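Internal tracking record. Fields below are filled automatically when a chain is submitted to the structure queue. Please do not edit lines marked as system-generated. If the sequence contains nonstandard residues, flag them in the REMARKS field before resubmitting.
Queue: standard
Priority: normal
Entity type: single polypeptide chain
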Amino acid sequence: MTITKTAPPTGKATVDSSSPTRKVLSFCLGVEEYGLDILAVREIIGLIDITPLPRTPTYVKGVINLRGKIIPVIALRERFGADAIEYTEEACIIVVDVPVEGSAEPRQMGVVVDSVREVLDIPTSALEAAPNFGSRVPLDYIICIGKVKNSVVVILDAAKVMTTQEEVDLAAAASAGTHLAG
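SYSTEM-GENERATED OUTPUT FOLLOWS
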């Protein structure tokens, strides 16, 4: 399954009430449902061989060669501090465009998730800002919470799922992987 984006991601971490709906790709990590703005999603691919990289955090799975382009891959489950699990047939890699500060071109990154659900059109009236748990709980990677039927979808900001230093480390690792592959 391939999803082609039609416009660049905005990188905004706010609820946009000017549009009647927000279109998100929903996916699961365990029983929890998350979403990414559909405009940030480049494509969805099945699990392929991931080349591990030395001296990276445990959630950094390595890099993949996707049609000649080296793309860093992280396991979102482990990135959020959950235990690693054995991947099932439903596990896949969502390739997202991550805005790069000071650059017009986004960087592609792969995110391993347990399963992809569907593309949702969530009415703006069903979106709420992330709850405030106090200053010790960092929630800046959450754009908003979508209320869908009797459940919630945590809508993530692809640009903020990783910190700046981690982005720099991943870009350097992917660049090193390009040199090793060539």
